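@channel sequence for tomorrow's demo:
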Amino acid sequence: MLCNTVFMFFIQVSVCFTFSQLDSMSVTPKGRARGQAPTIEQINADILTQLASEYWAPHSHLPRRSFEPKVIEDVYHKELIQNKFAIRRIMLLEFSQYLENYLWPNYIPEKASKTHVLSIVVLINEKFREGVPPWEACKSKPEHFPGFFRQVMEFCLEDDEAKVNIKEQTILMGFLIHCFNSLEVDVIREQVQRLVSLPMWVNLLPGRLEKELQLYPKYKKFWNIVKKVDAKADDKTKAKNEFERQFLSRLIQCFYKILDSIPETGKIKANKVHYCERFVELMTDLEAQLPTRRFLNVVLDDSHVVVRCRLSHLNKRHEGKLFTQLLDMLTFYTGFEISDSTGTALTDHEMTDLHYDRMSSLQRAAYKLFEDLRRFSLSNVASVDTRKALTNHFEKLTASQLHQFAAHLNLMAPLPEETETTSDKEFLLELMVSMHERRQSQIQVLNETPLYPTDKLLWDENIVPTEYFSGEGCLALPKLNLQMLTLHDYLLRNFNLFRLESMYEIRQDLEDAILRMKPWVAENGETFFGGWARMAQPITAFSVVEVAKPNIGENHPASVRADVTITLNLRRQIKNEWEALRKHDVAFLISVRPMKKIGSRFNLKEEHFIESVGLLHVRGCEVEGMLNEEGRVIEDGPDPKPELPGAQRTYRVWLDSNQYQQDMAGTAAGGEDVYESFNIIMRRKPKENNFKAVLETIRNLMNTDCVVPDWLHDIILGYGDPGAAHYSKMENQIATLNWNDTFLSLDHLRAGFPGHNIKVTATDPAKQKPPFRITFPVTSGGGGKKRKKAEEEKETEKKELVVEPHVIPNRGPYPYNQPKRNTIQFTPTQIEAIRAGMQPGLTMVVGPPGTGKTDVAVQIISNIYHNFPSQRTLIVTHSNQALNQLFEKIIALDIDERHLLRLGHGEEALETEKDFSRYGRVNYVLARRLELLKEVERLQESLRVGGDVAYTCETAGHFFLYQVVARWEKFLSKVKPTTSGQRSDSEDILEHFPFNKYFENAPQPVFKGKSFDEDMDIAEGCYRHIKKIFQQLEEFRAFELLRSGLDRSKYLMIKEAKIIAMTCTHAALKRHDLVNMNFQYDNILMEESAQILEIETFIPLLLQNPEDGFSRLKRWIMIGDHHQLPPVIKNMAFQKYSNMEQSLFTRFVRLGVPTVDLDAQGRARPSVATLYNWRYKKLGNLPHVHLTQEFHRANPGFRFDFQLINVEDFNGVGESEPNPYFYQNLAEAEYVVALFMYMRLLGYPAEKISILTTYNGQKHLIRDVINQRCAGNPLIGQPSKVTTVDRFQGQQNDYILLSLVRTRAVGHIRDVRRLVVAMSRARLGLYVFARVSLFQNCYELSPTFNLLVERPLQLHLAPRETYPTTRKVEEIPFGQPLIVDDMPHMAQFVYDFYQDRLRVIQAKQGHQRQLQAQLAKPPVSHTPSQAKPVPKVQHVAKRQDSLKPPGTAEDTSEEEVGEKAGKEKTVEDNEDVEMKEEGAKSE
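structure tokens (generated this afternoon):
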């Protein structure tokens, strides 16, 4: 069984291969290695397949044999070493669960061989490369990991290549990197932290050690403790401690040995280069995290790692390009602006002080030791601290003198007397210079960095890798792991990664546009363009028109402007697109000088893109605007742009000042003038072209004092107590809060706080109604043993809640005055999330699918709004769709709509007639002002007051003060109790109430006359209604003074709005504008937090200026689900190697920040929910899932509510790949569409069915099949959506048909997060089409597929039923079920089923026509007949040919459909628009 199933994975794997394999493979256009896929027979005969079947594979039909160490030896030597650790062999072993079922269960530290240890290392490395959980096997037997790690360290230090060769050393180095990047795993952290602790300073020079201990007295205290402990330890413990302390220092020496063995010229072993690269990567990773860098940085400096690497032969060779780039990163982090002891960031001033201290020590030593350096010693620091000056002074000294100089500064070991040094003079000179030269400020370097990518960066594979990065090697990229050094480091890493990710997309656009232009060289040597591109045009003329003088303190121009002229002889639509280029749009200027003659083909398989098209330069620019006939920029505005004659258009653009300065310096040095060579301009789609604005935002943040709240600072960097920002540890907890309409009743409140003693202040049951104020016992955060003991003693008190029911003041007599109320019965976990969100601090809510995340978010917003009326809340989401869903629910609550504001695009998708955009709200306020003034006028008339009091808000205010308030106070004086205690009756209220006439349009009677208190409450409510009118007019008064829409919208944003919503992208783009207009807020709520990029999560924290140096932010509520899909990163290298797909939400979860995990879902049937609820801690079901009828009814026409349907090859073909990574499966596509047609014929509404797949290629194929078989047929029509699982995240439907596509390899559904999304989209029915034998053997997917395979793998239908049905889900359908054998069987059945239905419809129509003919006789009356015409279905019959089952002569072949779909791969993926258009056609 296994031979035909699990190892079908081996047929084709979408990865790149090692360099040793590339020679034997064909390479496709973009550098993707694609080998010949083995046949089924070859796989069945594979030795690994046979061994796995016998020893460790799951679901094997053979009895499992006992453990044999020789099997491990054979697999390692014959399959891994002989195949040079080929990825395919390793992947085959990893997928077969070799590690989980054989290597680790049988690992015993005392008996394990080197082969056993290295096999485990190889498999764990492969899990990291594949992106699947790597440490699960080790956690099953954690007691063995210390012994295993000790063996790994011993093999890392083995210098005998016969025992551990250089390739194995490289593999071990990769394993160490993974260990140090997994510090959140307890079993790993316990081992690796021993290697980087204070005792590792035993490797320092004695003088350097003494100097460091003097600098940090607390370390000296700890050092003495370590020495005392060592003195008491036995020999075995001493040896163990010594090994661990010296490990990294000895590893450095092993590295030096390999580095020094690389010759200056001649052949070089690739494995040695890879080892050196991996070592530098390891050191960089250790330096980039404070816990590992704190003591290691001194050891690296004492070992002179950077200097040795700089002077190495590898650093000067072409093969060492990546090594050099990695070394630059290591150099950057070794000198990073941070205090290693305290972890605080160092300012430029503090860094300058440290530099001057070092230079002073150097000058004193020079004065003492060398008379020849007296002039140097007495010079001012600024004149001698450059590299050139230091070199000129020190190169006069001999090697021994330099050694003596360095030893005096504790940089080298002292030389014995009268002994010459063995060290090289070049090394000693570089050591002295590099240690003391002036360093450029990191901020200054950043500010001088061009924001636009250039051709050199765009096509550097080490920096911007191709789409097909395999994950094997290392790259010169920063990593986003658990911890950052400082906020500057945090922002800088994100800046670089965001910039590089943008470069990857820009490179794709450039390649596409330039190839479409077909640049050739004409006979006269000029460039000729033989093609055209929508997004690019040849440049007719280019000139730099302005170079502004530099600002003070800068060396680059303040601005550079240029004019670009192009000729737009294009279709009107495309010409309009070019003319619609707006201010701040980014374009690219390109120089090509092709060498190919006219008509030549561009063969990217054999030559690089740059050489093929003759690309010289790429520079970015920002559009200022198009010029009119007078040469002036046409400003953007409401007025239509003028019509310009002719086809020539000139654009004024801003160039990058930093890049211009560098280019001019190159030109002055004899290089080509870049700006004389541009001949193409390229634009990009606006949605994909916002990278510059985001980069500028990040750079601006780095140039300002980023004030992050103190309670958040350390958590964002990944240090300290992860729970420090939880409300229970905050000093400013709020004891009593108004829970507004959160609870539906007192019983609901009691159920919401299980285990608490509820004390209600009102004893009368009639008064024990919501809303409630709840007082919680407050415990101050932190504290030592005494405080903990006191808190334990008050445990009983902590469980007591004081509940105070209160009545919302009467708001007026009109129906719309009644407050809107929540109707959701929140669960205890949801209530805890709401409580945490109302309190100050950081609240993290993990919301599994269907658990009411949005409802919780909306209730938190509402409660904050009512408890803290003066505070402003910012809502941020990843998508416009989620923001609109949230906003629509907010509108339905008791929140005044004048306090709501929606920023950014997407507002038009709100399902409401009201406009919540900035200008929509301005119009609302102006219209509302007029409405209120009319009310004032009506009130004036009712009171018979003269004058024009309703002319402005100001006159209305005077009217209120002098007329309304006076009458109200007079009324109170008449009806309030007298001094003798005598009270008026209700009739007095009616008699003296001054506003009776005004409220005549309210429901009558206004006063009930039952009691004084009731009528007095009504009277006060009426006055509140009137008072609110004038309060709003006072707020709107500014709109009478501000005349422009822009000023009014700004005022609305910074003064009026209390709840402001925007997407994270809008926040990143508009931060500068928001800060400048003094935008302020107190709370942030983020939905979809796990889908937002780390930097886009961070930027919304800083959309306001600090107050007195402190942030006013009080609450940060993050709601998301890290078990679903992460942010979308297109480039695999940035996604996996740099971990850019990790959201801040996910990082906080990894760090151990407390979360509230919602634990009850209300979306899906309980049976369907079992397919994914295993992924969560404790996910149950809401009561309505068990009570509502729709969840109890069966899916009509189906035996099961969910089923996995096995799909075999059709015509000998399973998955296909018409384009790279564009996977399709015709059998599954036809099967899915046939099932959809079957459901429609049973009566299922089309809008309740969605078809999902895991690949874009299959999505296009399914759409083609639907268009062929269903389009235009009113009996079938279109499903609600046909899209990918990734695009459907956050959405749901009643019935989901899911195609998994792959038949050779599991593919990216192996990411459990994608599996969770796929399984959780359906409410009532889920039908999965897949190659069962492949997916059921995947270790990560087994919890879900074990449930799926418990049911029959052939589709079971009940075609006698119709939609809807009364059958219960547990009942068996009437009659024998139809068991579908395969896809052709299903297609034939649907075809026949359709014909039967059609005959029934036509028979009914015939009968109705006869009936109509009889009724059509002229009636006696002249009244027209009311009989409606029966719809015709003749056009249905015309669609019969399209319903023929696949395989008939008329059926479209997979090649035709695949070719068509392949062409659509680059088209923007916009399912909503496409499906609406298709649906309109069918209608």
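heads up for whoever presents: Confidence is low (pLDDT under 50) at residues 1-44, 1419-1440, 1448-1483.
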